[in-house]
Amino acid sequence: MRPIYFLLLFLPIAVVAELLHWPPLAIFAASALAVIPLAGLLGEATEVLAEKVGPRFGGLLNATLGNAAELIITIIAIRAGQLDLVKASLIGSVLGNILLVLGLSILLGGLKHGVQRFNRDHAGMDATMLILAVIAISVPSIFNAAIEPDTLRVEELSLTTAAVMLVIYALSIVYMLRTKAPDKEHGPGGVQPSHTGHRWSPAVALGILGVSVLGIAVMSEFLVGSIEPVTESLGLTPFFVGIIIIPLIGNVAEHLVAVQVALKNQMDLSLSIANGSSLQIALFVAPVLVFLSLALGNPLTLEFNNFELIALTASGAIAAFIAVDGRSNWLEGAMLLAVYVILALAFFFLPFAG
Fold it and tell me: Contact at 8 Å (CB) between 201 and 31?
């Protein structure tokens, strides 16, 4: 049993805290800690189902559900009208994967194994896709300044851009399914190898997946509902919570896997997890949320502030530089972590909500 599953004890605690109207901070902390193991269970169930349905459909299943926990949290936030929180969490997820997860993986892997090598071609392709994602996200934000205050055309630009992003994402899945061995890679279309010590039957995995999704949805309701009073009591902005804290909650399980495989000197897989998750957020989750937001009555546009765009662009460039030589060392990991810490401090002192 993985240690993070002990955090499932916070699931009933969060329910009791909500029903008995405990302080918002207690509700926020309990529900956040409960989401972590639920996301881990969802990921493992997805792996089992992906292996059973074969590499092609399995790759598609893994790509679709790779960031399901974050998707659920953001959908709940959109329904609550917290669009700035959603936008911040999307950018924060990409930053967290590129700087925090990759940095920690490279640092710890380098300290244990020295210089580590990985497939430069695969890493380069992921980096190129990430740069494309940065461009796709940045263009609406830059051009909206000229289009506003025509909100209808701003929404139309976001919708059409989101449609193009989904097409590119679908094409990337097709390409990677045809060129990578799915049982060895984990990218937008790859199947992550199992890291569990047990095997579930498809029926059990499907049941666990359903229960996990339901649990994450309920915990997300509690989480989002308590954010405003928690941020006020702690002196934080919803923007900081969205860009730093929410991404950590939804992706901790996958982050741990990336670090674990780096410690086993499997840097190809570690890079694929970090970069692949970033691509899923940027090219799949973000555009899907643009369309879903229309049905929820709170249209979400791909319009981010300058601070988010600068951080995103810099992170995408760093990912490209890391992939250039096909090697990594612990100092590069330390530098990535330093950039993440500096950005986190800057966002912490930023005196507005988004």
Answer: no
